[in-house]
Amino acid sequence: MGKTKKEIVIIGLILLMVIALIGVSYAAFRFTGEGQRVNTITTGSITMTYEESSNTISLNGALPTRDATGKTRLNQGEYFDFTVSSNITGDVNINYEISAKEVGDGTIDGSNIKLYLTRLTDDGEEELMTPEVYNEETSANNFTGRPSGEMSLYTSSMNSSESNNYRLRMWVDEDYNPQGDGGGLQFSVQINVYGKDGDKMPVTTSPVNEVLLSNIPEDNQYNDEVDTFITGEDPNNYIWYSGKLWRAVSVNKEANTTKLVTQWNISSTTYNASGNTAFEGSYMEEWLNDTTVDGFLGNLRDYEDFIITNAVWDATMDATDLGSITRPNGTTTVSKAVGLLNIYEYQTSYTGTAYGNGYLNNGLTWWTLTPYSTSRVRIVSDDGSAIRYTPADLYGVRPSINLKSSVRIVDGNGTIENPYRLEGDNDTSLSGTLLSSRYSGEYVRFGNDENNLYRIVSHETSGLTKITSAEPLKNSGTFITSAFGSSNSEVNYSTNSVIGTFLNGEYLTNYVGNAYSDMIEDSTTWYLGTVGSGDSYKLAKYTDTNMSSTVSTTTNAKVGLLRFGELMAGQFGRYGPNTDYWTLTPYSSSRVRVVNNFGIAGNAPTYSYGVRPSINLKSSVVITEGDGTLNSPFELS
Fold first, then answer.
1. Of 210, 297, 389, 477, which residue has the fewest beta carbons closer than 10 angstroms?
2. SS3 track for 412-454
3. Confidence grade of residue 9 (pLDDT, cut at 50, 70, 90)
4. Cβ contacts of residue 371 below 8 Å, gap of 6+?
5. Complete DSSP assignment for 383-422
6. Where are the domains of the chain?
7. Averaged over 519-548, what is the pLDDT?
8. What's the pLDDT score for residue 597?
9. Judging by DSSP bridges, how do beta strands 420-422 and 238-241 pair with one another?
10. In which band, very low, low, confident or very high, does the pLDDT at 282 lie, cut at 50, 70 and 90?
11. Structure-model confidence comparison of residues 5 and 338, the more confident one
């Protein structure tokens, strides 16, 4: 078969897992092979076989099971063996993938079911997939032909005839509580093998933790028996996910999860009210885990498929000097999807190098998770030192997440020029896709000349896409500046204010141009809520922190600015060239919020600062090319 003809080979087997409830314990698991045959599909010179086993697996009296027990079961009926083989002639490469697909009307949710896959070797069993709950992929794998909507168990490539024996185990997650679920529970999966000829996958689709630790030199790893930390000045630990560049910080030794932190400050905001340094219930915790368009989590792509949503964040107080901090003892922990790095994690990244030179110093100032006292929270300053300030102050935010152990790398080499790409977040062939379907942080080509790079902020208005310039506007390489208003009392943005007149006039004509201007929604509502000292980010848009209604102080205009605490309202360059720039949020009756290298300040509207326009693009705007990264921004039509 010629390489120009792409054939997808799909070989399936139905496995049935039946759970019958008797009292409060489970009576049985049962895997049933549908017949006893060898499924063979031949396409030209390529033959792949999937051999069924006649074994029926029964776990009599099975209760929810610990992973350590489920992984080692070897009694008759407690595992399922199968074979994937090929008969290849000629110069051809086959990428193949083993996956699971829920079928039938299951009465127990797949999130309570664990799957575990190994390969049988002469020396025993080789773990291919850590125990993972059933979780369907949201996008297809173009290299293997696996469609979306199935759980990927393992991928590999072969270019010569070979045969591999696999062993699959399944069990009920130990956290499942069988009390009161009504009995008669059932869950069914179909195991598929997909194969496709073509170029070998650029990076074997292995779990993130495996790729990272195999490619990072041992000199850039530090193991504290709980986590393996990545250390050094600039290791190849860059990951692109959901429109943002991240750094991999550590891998948990037991769970094989990978902790990430954004490379740049995503926003700037208050940590909490004055005198309250607790992370739990803070403005910061709310902003990070806000699932609306106004917070971080609500703009993160398919987060339930990628990250641990009940991750444990250690926010134990510590006033120890940097360099002498020990691992926190878990006195104060919070279970949330998104958090911040604590000061111990920041310190540990510097193992083997000097503070200020390590990869976690991005030249900006940002909050950590660690209180210094009951009145101060620790931050990292632009020179890499650790200092502390009142939680009512305003500094940069670098969200941190924990990737599931099942998340796989499918492309990239971990460098800043070619960061690792994750399966399910590595879209290609996006021509004709609506921009409104894309994600916060992705890059867009828009406007003229040196000011033609923008980033997606959010989809605040249904169907529309809010974007902002990637950096403040320039003229011949120099940042331009503007007053906000003509007097110190002009703190509310409008098309009649100094900066509003510029943005809705000269900016549209000279910086955007007619071809792009027609893509902009003619009138957008801009929220002008005042955020005073120690106030929540929510007040920039809402009347109260319950977000019960939006503020009455608004203005309508074609072009506006970012508001306090909004995504992308942070600096992005290391040390510069940067410039302070206006938001549209008043600080008081005589000051307006300004984003600077440290966070956010409030200054008189007659001062002059940089300009980062924000606009909403129409629902009809489509992508013509590009993948949304810095090196390949979306082109629009």
1. 477
2. CCCCCCCCEEECCCCCCCCCCCEHHHCCCCCEEECCCHHHCEE
3. very low
4. 277, 278, 279, 315, 317, 318, 377, 378
5. TS-EEEE-TTSEEEE--EEEE-TT-EEEE--SSSSS-EEE
6. 8-197, 208-403, 427-636
7. 96
8. 77
9. parallel
10. very high
11. 338
Helix (H, G, I), strand (E, B) or coil at 116: strand
Instruction: Give the phi and the psi of residue 255 in degrees, each rounded to 5.
Output: -90, -15
Above 70 in pLDDT, residue 230?
yes
Q: Which of 17-26, 173-182, 500-509, 564-573 is most confident?
A: 500-509
Residue the block writes with tokens 């072009």: 559
CB 269 within 8 A of CB 600: yes
CA 411 to chain centre: 16
CA 107 to chain CA centroid, nearest Å:
30
DSSP codes of every residue in 366-380? EEEEEESSSS-EEEE
3-state SS of 135-165?
A: CCCCCCECCCCECCCCEEEEEEEECCCEEEE
Q: How far apart are CA 457 and CA 298, in angstroms?
A: 12
Q: Is the pLDDT of residue 200 over 70?
A: no
Q: Supply 119's token pair.
A: 């390969």
Q: 63 φ, ψ to 5°?
A: -105, 170
Q: Which of 202-216, 399-413, 521-535 has the lowest mean pLDDT?
A: 202-216
Please tell me the pTM assigned to this model: 0.72
Residue 134 in contact with residue 189, Cβ under 8 Å? yes
Coil vs helix vs strand at 97:
strand
Amino acid (one-letter) located at 87: N
Quick check: helix, strand or coil at residue 65? strand
All residues at 6 or more sequence positions from 145 whose CB lies less than 8 Å from its CB, including other chains: 8, 9, 10, 97, 194, 195, 196
Q: Using the CB atoms, write b or e for 172-197: b if 16+ within 10 Å.
A: bbeebebeeeeeebebbbbbbbbbbb
Round to whole Å and give the CA distance between 90 and 514: 56
Tokens of 554: 């608004």
Which residues face 129 on adjacent strands? 117
Lowest average pLDDT, out of 85-94, 423-432, 458-467, goes to 85-94
More confident residue, 348 or 50: 348
Q: Is the dihedral of CA 244, 250, 256, 259 positive or negative?
A: negative
CB atoms within 10 A of CB 596: 20
The single-letter code of the amino acid at 138 is T
* Residue whose C-alpha is closest to residue 575's, from 308, 344, 384, 351: 384
User: Which of 22-26, 192-196, 512-516, 604-608 has the lowest average pLDDT?
Assistant: 22-26
pLDDT for residue 28: 29
